[in-house]
């Protein structure tokens, strides 16, 4: 009896397994397509100057971080006003940035006179920016007088380049 029971169990198991077996597909899948190895995707940091750097500031204001003055003058003319408005827009967008405005003069005149003139030029630029809504606490001024010329020479072209106020980002 035991043999019969074992035989029936064996036959039942075989039948069950046979019912589960898959039939071969009528159509085979296409062969694998060869692919060329693609370069791995790499992520890089954005190129360009870092926000808050002098380079970013100069780029953002289209190089208008310098304003120029006539001889013995410190008034803001229309070209200076346009440059300062561009600077004010930048400073309005990046409220964490502080600047120093450097006042400069040409080589003519005494050291004391040129230091005072450079200070008036820097303060004129600062006051204009403050009038446009930039917080005065974000702007400091310094006068270099005739001590830091950008153009060497004793002629009108050199003097015109040296009569300036330069906005510089500070960290």
CATH architecture of one domain: 2-Layer Sandwich
Return the CATH topology of one domain.
60s Ribosomal Protein L30, Chain: A
- Cα separation of the termini: 97 Å
**Proportion in β-strands:** 5-15%
Largest sheet: 4 strands, mixed
Radius of gyration over alpha carbons?
39 Å
Ranges with pLDDT <50 over ≥5 residues?
none
- The secondary-structure element order is HHEHEHEHE
Taking all residues together, what is the mean pLDDT? 87
Query: Quick one: overall form?
Result: rod-shaped
Number of helices: 5
Number of strands: 4
CATH class of one domain: Alpha Beta
Structure description:
By secondary structure, the chain is an alpha+beta fold. The chain has a domain at 58-101 and 114-146: 2-Layer Sandwich (60s Ribosomal Protein L30, Chain: A). The protein is built from 5 helices and 4 strands; from the N terminus they run ααβαβαβαβ. It has helices at 2-20, 54-60, 78-93, 111-131, 156-162; strands at 66-68, 98-104, 139-145, 164-170. A 4-stranded mixed sheet has the order 1-4-2-3. α4 links the parallel β2 and β3 (139-145). The mean pLDDT is 87.
